[in-house]
Design brief:
This protein has about 140 residues and is mainly beta. Helices cover about 5% and strands about 50% of the residues. The strands form two sheets. A five-stranded mixed β-barrel has the order 1-3-4-6-5. It has a two-stranded antiparallel sheet with strand order 7-8.
Length: about 140
């Protein structure tokens, strides 16, 4: 049996960025910072920050791009994946990312009230309204979280 699962709670360090693959699939990426705090042997408080690269695909990526901003507190659940490529000088580069499978927004901009959502991949927002350009637009009041 194998298991590849990552669960983090932290804050976005930048606004999400969305791209579209040549096949037309939306992909959103952002970074989440998590803190680890402990007391050392002398009783001094220590803190270490870890930065996690997160990638969300398709509808979950669209929701992340629409509702998350720099500083948002978020729960991310997914799997770890490491990509590799050669840079312009021919050096091998690696990047480990969390491929998001579930996201829970833990705060709202301008509101300190916490709330949870059901997993976005299993319960996508299906009731969309059309904006003036004919594109689907997510109505905030109809999102189940």
């Amino acid at each position: 049996m194998n298991l590849n699962k990552a669960m983090i709670i932290g804050n976005l360090t930048r606004d999400p960025e969305t791209r579209t693959t040549p096949q037309g699939t939306n992909v959103t990426s952002f970074t989440v910072a998590t803190n680890f705090i402990w007391n050392d042997a002398n009783g001094n408080r220590q803190e270490k920050v870890e930065y996690h690269n997160v990638v969300a695909w398709r509808k979950l990526g669209e929701i992340c791009a629409q509702y998350l901003t720099k500083g948002s507190k978020v729960y991310i659940e997914g799997r770890l994946q490491t990509r590799s490529w050669d840079d312009q000088q021919g050096n091998k580069k690696y990047r480990t990312e969390i491929i998001a499978e579930n996201m829970i927004m833990l705060d709202r901009p301008g509101n300190n009230q916490s709330y949870n959502s059901t997993p976005a991949k299993n319960n996508p927002v299906e009731d969309f309204s059309q904006n003036e350009t004919g594109e689907e637009e997510i109505n905030v009041d109809e999102i189940p979280f």
